[in-house]
Amino acid sequence: MSLLLDNQFTELPADKSIDTKTFLDNVSTLPPFFDCLGSKVFSIIKSDINGNITKIRAVYVQDPAKYVTLKDILEAERETYKAEWPKVGATLALMWLKRGLRFIQVMLQSLADGERDENNPNLIRVNITKAYEQALKRYHGWIVQKIFNAALIAAPYRSNFLKALSKGEEVKDEDCLANVRLFLVNYTATVDAIYEMYTSLNAELDYTV
């Protein structure tokens, strides 16, 4: 079985609202994805995702009936924190979480689209670099960027990464990529909906760490 298909995201309703409990259950299965990348340096992103999931869940469990959707949380925190919002609470945690989710999405989409370094076709550095540049780089200072560049050197071979996604089973690359494309359908829709929500609520921030 595929690591990704074991943890399929739920299809969104027509209004693109995101059920908080379902979302938290879905994203909680994602951190092992970074183990497939091999390098311990990627554990930074993994740890960040875990931490932000924990922060969002801590808010949700305070009043599940009030925080049915992610939008409910953002709107409630906007009312509670006033001028401090959105750089506070679950709103800030989800802001960073969505960037980590976008990193995964862009990387997997790049692999599924067959993008590769023609001189080094069995390396996935081009896919990881694209994901980092689109999802995270603009929010990172030069020190964090240097750490990421170090992680690139230790990135696994494409074949080893796909095998890890298949939980060590011998699966043809194209079959594994077919599973990736299937996973991306609902996953991409969810990530896009979160980004759209932040734009509509004017909740996006652009500072670096």
Q: What does this 3D model show about the protein?
A:
This protein is mainly α. It has eight helices and no strands. It has helices at residues 20-27, 43-60, 70-81, 89-112, 125-135, 142-153, 158-165, 173-200. Helix 4 runs antiparallel to helix 8 (173-200). It is globular and about 55 Å long.
Show the helix and strand layout.
Blueprint: H1 20-27, H2 43-60, H3 70-81, H4 89-112, H5 125-135, H6 142-153, H7 158-165, H8 173-200
Pick out its properties.
globular; mainly alpha; 58% helix; 209 residues
Concise structural overview:
This protein has 209 residues and is mostly helical. It is built from eight helices and no strands.
Low-confidence stretches: none
Distance between the termini: 37 Å
Number of strands: 0
- Average pLDDT figure: 93
Order of helices and strands: HHHHHHHH
- Gross morphology: globular
How many DSSP H or I helices?
8
The biggest beta sheet is recorded as: none
Rg from C-alpha positions?
A: 17 Å
Share of residues in helices: 55-70%
Helix/strand/pairing category:
mainly alpha
Strand content: under 5%
